[in-house]
Write a structure and sequence with these properties.
heterodimer, A: alpha/beta, Rossmann fold, B: 84 residues, Mth169, Chain: A, three-stranded antiparallel sheet
Chain lengths: 223, 84
């Protein structure tokens, strides 16, 4: 059974949703506090949504200096699957583990709504089980979700298939409708939408399952 | 010596600034005409114990680049100001 670590920063608030989703997919979840310097023996790490360190300064700016982030960076460097959801995505960009940055939404509104995502690349631990072109309904819940990067970074993202998910109808002003990106190797992924909140049709959508299923089983493929 | 340093963090040229744009659009309604552009940012003030003003500035610039700003989207500038 895959073991997935869920990092808990002071101010994280989606860690239980993430753990529940992981467990529902047959993996085990364990919380890793931000002050920990080791991840233990995990097959993947999730940085969940919330407001790590109060989002003071900028979302993710202080979380990046949490002791656990050195362990996350080392895990990522050896090919371990790392997933940042919403605030976790912001933390990964601030930490330099993913390119670009997340800016305040166009229109300066907090957005909390279902969005339709289009799978743009399956070259990532998150989208590996999905089909290119597939449309997935997954909710967003953020204020700073407009993906931004310079032209050189953008060209590189396109060249290496690192844009993994796009919005069908861009809700927040993200460059090129980008909802999620991966690093070049595909083992580190961040997205603003919340797949862990799209696990059941009873609650609106089960389209997050194909993403998280791919993620929790990714380590077996890497090895 | 104690030096007072102000660090200003602003979005880089070419990066969309929705906050500045919103303020800019609100100004004519309040009767402020002729404001050509608004850029929003953050200001930090530090009192720094250092051997020289250069050392204080270097230290402030360094912490501004490492922590206060995200170089992907923001510029940070440090300058000395008169102490309180």
């Amino acid at each position: 059974m895959a073991r997935i670590g869920v990092v808990v920063f002071p101010g994280s608030n989606c860690e239980y949703d993430a753990a529940r989703a992981v467990e529902e997919l047959g993996a085990s979840a364990e919380f890793i506090f931000h002050s920990s310097t080791s991840l233990g023996d995990v097959d993947g790490v999730i940085l969940p949504g919330g407001f790590a360190h109060g989002d003071y300064l900028r979302p993710g700016a202080l979380a990046r200096f949490s002791p656990v982030m050195d362990a996350v960076a080392a895990f990522a460097a050896e090919g371990g699957p790392v997933l940042g959801i919403c605030n976790g995505f912001q933390v990964l960009t601030e930490a330099g583990l993913l390119p670009g940055a997340l800016q305040k939404n166009r229109g300066l509104t907090f957005l909390c709504q279902p969005t339709t995502l289009v799978v743009s690349s399956t070259h990532s631990v998150l989208t590996r089980a999905a089909q290119v072109g597939a449309r997935l309904v997954v909710p967003i819940n953020h204020f700073s979700g407009a993906y931004t990067c310079d032209d050189t970074t953008y060209a590189s993202l396109v060249d290496h298939g690192q844009i993994v998910l796009r919005y069908q109808d861009n809700p927040n002003g993200s460059r090129d409708d980008i909802a999620g990106v991966a690093n070049e190797a595909g083992n580190v992924v961040g997205l603003m939408p919340h797949p862990e909140r799209a696990m059941s049709t009873l609650l609106g959508s089960a389209d997050g399952r194909v993403l998280l299923e791919g993620f929790v089983s990714a380590r077996e493929i890497v090895h | 010596m104690n030096y007072s340093v102000v660090v200003e963090v602003t979005l880089r040229v070419g990066i969309a600034d929705p906050e500045g744009a919103t303020i800019e659009r609100a100004l004519p309604a309040l009767g402020f005409n002729g404001v050509r552009s608004v850029r929003a940012g953050k200001m930090f003030r530090f009192d720094i114990e250092a051997e020289s003003s250069d050392e204080a500035l270097t230290s402030a610039q360094s912490l501004a680049e490492r922590l206060l700003s995200n170089p992907v989207i923001e510029d940070a500038t440090a300058r000395l100001v008169e102490g309180r």
